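Q: Got a minute? One more chain.
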Amino acid sequence: MEGSELSGSHPPPGEMTNEALALWYSLARLYSRAASTAGRSVRLGFTVTLVSGALVLLSAPLFGTAWAGVYAPLIPLLLGVFAGLFKFLLERAAMRRREASIAASLAALGLDAGRPGANGLAAYYDAQLVLLRSEYEYLLGKGAGRSTKVFEDSFGFTPEDDFEAGPLTVAPDSPQIAELRKRWERRIRSRKERAPKVGLREDRAYRFYPREMTVGAERVVREACLTISLELARKRYGRDFLEAPENLREQAGREAEEYRWLTGRKP
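A: Always. Here it is, folded:
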């Protein structure tokens, strides 16, 4: 389908060593895994609770419950909570050690792990920049001033950019995104103050850190981008985009079709 081909093999432009790219992408993978630590810990805790509860019930006919007294019903729950909390703390400690190691390696190259865009946007693929700018526009509509300021300081975005989501007016691998990339980098270089530090929290919320655009990763990024664009388009032009000008209505329709193609779900 035209417009549905994913271009994960296209490298980001600009000056960036392979070593630096590998470190940025490793940090993004680390944060992606860390974002699901709580879920894995809860699943382990739940499993331990069920297994230990079953063992307590099975042991009752043989040993009774006098050994545990009135606390017998609480033992599975306490074991589950302990196991889940232990896994969470263990994984988080390992993540922080790995994070510090990557940050030190980036610092040796003159890069700040807490400011991924401070030295330019060369580590970012077009597809991710389109998503980040779409998220920025979504937050502008929500009046989330504090969050939008982080995007502006980190990536050089402004409300006046020649970019619109809902539907999207800029595509990856296009002259428009190439020109926007140059403008954003000029704004970053012209900043008199350093951008605020970001980390796991911002990446978990907005995929802030540069990611290697494998076909699978770009599929996830494109789906997120279409989700934002279609929501904004419906907010502006109605459920079926009937209030939109013809060219925008057609573009929104193509995005809805691409979303169905990617996800198998009705947008």
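A: The CA atoms of residues 61 and 76 lie 17 Å apart.
Q: Perfect, thanks.
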